Amino acid sequence: MKEILLQIDGKEVKATEGMTVLEAARSADIFIPTLCYHEKLKPYGGCRICTVEVEVRGWTRPVAACLYPVEQDLKVRTRSEKVDRIRKMILELLLAHAPYSIELQNLAQEYGADKDRFEKESSFCILCGLCVRYCAEVKKKHAVGFVKSGAKREISFIPEISSKECWNCKECFPLCGTSYLQAAFVLAESLAFSSASSKNATEK
Amino acid sequence: MPRIDSAAELEELRKGILSKRDPNKPYIAICAGMGCHGLSNDRIITAFEEEVKKQDLKKKVDIRATGCHGFCEKGPIVVIYPEQICYVEVMPGDVPEIVSQTVLGKKVIDRLIYTDPNTGEKAAHQSEIPFYKNQMQHLINNNTKIDPKSIDDYLAIGGYSALSKALLEMSPEQVLEEIKKSNLRGRGGGGFPAGKKWETARNAPGEEKYVIVNSHEGELGAFMDRAIFMGNPHSVLEGLIIGAYAIGSHQGFIYTRHDTPQLKNNIDIALAKAEEYGLLGENILGSGFNFNVEVHFDIGIFVSGESSALMKSIEGKNPEPRAKYIRTSVRGIWEKPSNLNNVETWANVPLIINKGSEWYASIGTERSKGTKLISLSGNIVNTGVAEVPFGTTIREIIYDIGGGIPNGKKLKAVHFGGPMGGSIPESYLDTPLDFDELAELGAPIGAGSMLVLDEDTNMVDVIRFFLDFLSNESCGKCVPCREGIRQMLKIVTNISEGNGREGDIQLLEEISEVAAAASLCALGKTASDPLLSTLRYFRDEYEANIK
Amino acid sequence: MENKKIDRIINKYQGKPNSLIQVLLEIQSENHWLPKEALDRVSKKLNVPLSQIMQIATFHNTFSLIPKGRHEVHVCTGSSCHVRGSTRLLDAVQELIGIRPGETDSDSKFSLDTSNCLGCCNLGPEIIVDGKHHGKVTPAKAEDVLKNYE
Ligand SMILES: Cc1cc2nc3c(=O)[nH]c(=O)nc-3n(C[C@H](O)[C@H](O)[C@H](O)COP(=O)(O)O)c2cc1C
Ligand code: SF4
Ligand code: FES
Ligand code: FES
To answer: Are residues B204 and B349 in the same domain?
Structure first.
């Protein structure tokens, strides 16, 4: 593997070809916040909290660190006025859904995000997709997935599969950044509303 | 039909087709485009067929159900050749009279010709109607001359001569060079130089490469891609094969709308015919070049027109964009180099190969070359598709071609590019049609839809409409887009209902900035462009509704 | 929908997993909606997880997971129709048939949906019933259009 030298926050960092900026930063103990990243899962690029500024050939632009591949002589800034503004807004948008999330609250403090900037939303899911992707990529069960598009997107359990698999697994619950209960709630709800499978579940 | 195996055979076939055709034999071109379809043009077509049969004229007159003529407003349109007498708003009951009076008797039926509502002047011939007179047509003019289902019709107007020239007289590098020199820019929205994109795909590592036609046409109020692809499918296909040759691709894809059966049908027939004639498949025209095409349908959602989402859809997966830090022309469908161009972009290619890049680059402005198809809609007298050279002013398009604003109203704004575009006010109407000049004004051309808005339009409501559209038609994967649009829509809705609050505009600007900077794909990055353009030119309409 | 029909569609694409979207579109177009059993069968035959199918099937109103009425009514809500008054037209249609977009009435006569621009802006505002376009429909004229359907 080709070795690549880049600069993160003024520090020389050694990385190998194919690594992302986030991986390079972590290997050098430089912190970049993430919400939808997990080392066991393919990078997703949904939350955008990992946005950093990169400078290529004199051009500065914001990119998602969890996806952006390292390049020779790349200059990365993990904090800047612009980066902080972006993260603050993303946090405020997410806090409208999950105001009690410890993870979000901690980040909110760091970036001066106001948790009450926007009216509260009914769903507290932030759609990071950790549960969906963990179930598909690690457990290979596909018991939970995304449904609908745009602002209506949500997660949904497939009753036939989850009634069989979920109660003994629940490995996705602790991954949830909003609260342990979120996934459980959606799961219970999906089982309750599906008569055939709820019968299945009670029989167990 | 035996397949064609050389340039000579192609020319012989063409001669054969032409020798059987008498240029003076009358033919009736009946528009079967989408706009006229909605006006039950099928009844007109049947009526003509029946009338010709009844009067036993099969040998004396041809009937062609053609693609869109552009003048959809006055549909159903019927043009009688060779005189080019144009009848508008034709009803089935008019048909017997047209056949006996005009086709046979060579007389113009006064009641069916176009009358200019502004001057009262009548025009019997297409070339005299202001809508047509003020255009420069190199693409859509062929629509009236061919039946899209007939490859012979396309060959009769010189079709596939560019393919023959490219494959048999030029190297792939020469073809690429020609396209680069022509300065052809993508017509799907971004205006990216086509030659540059082709070159990236050509030079990208890997044996297998793909070329794709983007015929999703999701931009609201855009219907020119359908007009061209449905009306002249071989022209797009010919461009695609030439591009494949230049790039070194042997597999093409057509990504098109699932909801337009006529389009699907015409594409299917064109592919089958081209294959039968040896213009697709193995050893095309005896050149040794192989190329096949597969058709895929969208599921209707706007975001699927975005290149990476489109490519996922072709893989059979949910059309959700991915980050393009590595470009799709390097890593696209199944991670292979994939060159995507819009319908109209491909349709320009045969023209450039035939007439040369110099000719092509002589049309248009400094940095926007050739002609552009424009879909006119909204508060405009002549809804339809017009083709003009870049550099034509917006005023000329709207007044000289579009006939101005109906019901004696004044024009307020022109909105370009649908939900990712922007509006300009009346005072900028003398701006020339140009990718860069309009982008600088905050109203990028997009795919070419021009939504004309009259003085009664509430601009805040228009923006609310676009945001609402995007909140449904985006994928919802990333936060700045999904949540940003959700909040912007709420705020703009409040303002449009007269319930704006102090600080709303600043908040909108703040969200816009973050959505533009941090969204995953171009949808989120440009979702607030319409909003920002109206904040630039119509800010008072927002302020008036803020307490 | 019978399994035989579903299998025929799947077989047409030689059971390739990348034909998923094309298969779903064909089932929707033949059957007018996607029954759960059909999705199960597609999942098994194409070896694609049901969660992935559900995501596509709910991604756009092109697909329906509930049965449609005898007549599918679409009101175009594209930009041109919007500025020509499609909001009021949609209100009138909702009022007339008593359902909202995405719904089917209780006697399964009508289903209502909005549609994106279909490229017939010359007709706007328009109602499309079972694929047939009705152009320049004012709210008052909506009843005339719909009363012809049984
Ligand atoms: C959300 C979104 C929707 C798009 N829809 C279309 C479309 O319907 N048709 C199209 O040709 N390009 C569309 N594009 C642009 C394509 O991504 C791509 O740039 C284009 O097809 C490339 O062709 P061109 O270079 O010939 O313009 C869309 C882009 C985005 C971000
Ligand atoms: S910007 Fe919008 S459409 Fe694009 S990936 Fe993000 S959520 Fe999806
Ligand atoms: S961690 Fe990079 S986008 Fe979520
Ligand atoms: S569809 Fe007939 S003129 Fe456009």
So the answer is: yes
